[in-house]
Design a protein that fits this description.
Elements lengths: L1 E3 L2 E3 L18 E6 L2 E5 L6 E2 L4 H11 L1 H6 L2 E3 L10 H14 L7 H4 L3 H7 L20 H9 L10 E3 L1 H13 L8 E8 L2 E2 L8 E3 L4 E4 L2 E5 L2 E6 L11 H15 L4 E6 L6 H9 L3 E6 L3 H6 L1 H14 L3 E9 L9 E10 L2 E2 L2 E5 L5 H9 L3 H13 L10 H25 L10 H9 L3 E5 L4 E5 L6 H14 L5
Parallel strand pairs: 8-14, 14-15
Antiparallel strand pairs: 1-2, 3-4, 5-20, 6-7, 8-12, 9-11, 10-11, 12-13, 15-19, 16-17, 17-18, 17-19, 20-21
Helix pairs in contact: 1-5, 1-14, 1-16, 3-5, 3-14, 7-8, 7-14
Length: 482
């Protein structure tokens, strides 16, 4: 055997044409380290680079999340011909999104990962063709694609159908169940964002504000949890669907937290008569941004002049508050309380207005209540950038709504792991991307025997402390009933 540039080949005196040459690379030689050779081989056994999926699986089982989501599907396939159950398909897709695999094409190789097979439940169901080897290959990209398209198409090839209303209801109930029953205050944050489109998706529309073709999904959060994720076309007002969402969310909160004051919060895009009227008629409070106009500018001119004077004297940013009753000329049905922040910042005027029916100090309402909605914008970015909620490349609108819901459930799974398993650790406030990098992306050797699946992690792994902390908290919680 002669080794040439890291390739081992057979050396003989017989000449052969290029077509007859057979070269099998079994070892890779690198530059030596002192007197030691450096050789790499693909013979280490069965490995996975996503050992942290064990924690995801444990979190999922403690919530029963993908099992409940699978129950939102109707399966019309023949039971004797089913290769992949709906629960396995849903777990495979949701767990893969949480692990950072945004494309269905990733599953062409990911389907052979032993730990993703374990998390999806494939090890729990023996292979009928080979009972001695319980590990089974996961679903292929085309199979998962049919799952996503099932909401729109009803034909010979699409027999698994998602009831999107039931899935959305599950998302709401999962979020509300996390609330303390004795809470005195619950804030529902609403916001819309763009999901850029790069193809001819159904319902595509050029949105002037975002300067691209996009969808305009509506989100509602309670603290860090998604309570509503609705895909919409971009040819409508940002607030459309908010009242309908409140009609579904508010009864759940009142049942769970009967003593809680419910506050609706949003930017100026949600300062609409139907939303404020719904809140006033149903005992809700609201804190909403209010876009400026000439009448508001005249009303706040004196406060702004005071801020300018104070900034001139102190040579620092100055902020004054002014409140008054205000009613639009046409759209509002009644006068409402408006709070103006008159600010002079870096030599420029920076006025802002909010409208509210809360009886609290103007400074507190603006700085502590309204400005806190910025955290919800961070959570939307986390879901879009880290959990791929903007990956809406299906041609059908309904299929993209399914994708949005799958991403929302992947976010919910990671958020619950963060809140339950990582509480008290350095990762308690980490983003999904940081958790994935430090806790999910762990290389491990997987050994399967008749009685045991052993996952061997590196002894020097820097995530060992976090992994152990999360494991202890999850084991103490136990699986969900049923």
């Amino acid at each position: 055997m002669v080794q040439l540039f890291g390739v081992q080949t057979n050396n003989n005196n017989q000449s052969s044409s290029p077509a007859e040459t057979h070269c099998e690379q079994t070892a890779f030689a690198f530059q030596a380290c002192g007197s030691r050779e450096v050789i790499a081989r693909f013979d280490g056994g069965t490995f996975s680079t996503d050992a942290g999926v064990l924690l995801l699986r444990e979190t999922d089982r403690s919530l029963g999340l993908t099992r409940k989501l699978a129950a939102c599907f109707t399966d019309r396939r023949r039971p004797d011909r089913i290769e992949h159950t709906v629960e396995e398909l849903v777990a495979q897709r949701v767990h893969a999104i949480a692990l950072g695999y945004e494309d269905l094409n990733d599953h062409a190789t990911l389907r052979n990962d032993p730990l993703l097979q374990l998390s999806a439940g494939k090890f729990e169901r023996p292979d009928s063709d080979n009972p001695d080897n319980p590990a089974r290959t996961l679903a292929s990209p085309p199979t998962l694609n049919r799952l996503e398209l099932s909401s729109q198409r009803h034909d010979h090839y699409h027999k698994v159908h998602l009831d999107q209303e039931n899935a959305a209801a599950l998302l709401r109930s999962t979020a509300v169940r996390t609330l303390d029953k004795n809470r005195r205050e619950v804030i529902i944050d609403f916001d819309a964002t763009d999901a850029p489109l790069h193809g001819n998706q159904e319902g595509r529309f050029f949105q002037g504000y975002y300067n691209n073709y996009c969808y305009l999904p509506l989100y509602a959060f309670i603290e860090d949890l998604i309570v509503h994720a609705q895909l919409r076309t971009a040819d409508q007002d940002a607030s459309n669907g908010t009242v309908e969402a409140l009609e579904k969310i508010v009864p759940l909160i009142r049942k769970r937290c009967p003593k809680a004051l419910i506050i609706v919060r949003g930017d100026s895009g949600y300062c609409r008569e139907p939303i404020m009227r719904y809140c006033e008629q149903n005992g809700l409070r609201y804190v909403l941004g209010l876009a400026g106009n000439a009448r508001l500018a005249r009303e706040t001119a004196f406060a702004l002049s005071q801020a300018r004077g104070l900034a001139c004297v102190t040579k620092k940013a100055a902020r004054m508050y002014h409140e008054f009753e205000y009613q639009t000329l046409e759209s509002w049905s009644r006068p409402r309380r408006v709070i103006c922040k008159a600010e002079r910042l870096d030599g420029k005027d920076n006025p802002r207005q909010i409208v509210t029916n809360l009886d609290a100090d103007p400074r507190h309402l603006y700085e502590k209540v309204y400005c806190a909605r910025g955290e919800m914008e961070n959570r939307i970015k986390e879901q879009q950038l880290d959990l791929f909620a903007d990956r809406l490349s299906c041609a059908d609108f309904a299929a993209n709504q399914t994708r949005l819901l799958l991403s929302a459930f992947a976010y919910t799974l990671v958020e619950r792991l963060r809140a339950i398993a990582l509480k008290g650790s350095e990762l308690a406030q980490a983003t999904a991307a940081t958790i994935r990098l430090k806790l999910f992306k762990l290389a491990a050797r997987v050994e399967v025997s008749v009685r045991r699946i052993t996952v061997r992690l590196s002894q020097s792994n820097p995530a060992r402390t976090h992994f152990e902390h999360a494991w202890r908290r999850l084991r103490a919680r136990g699986p969900a009933p049923g």
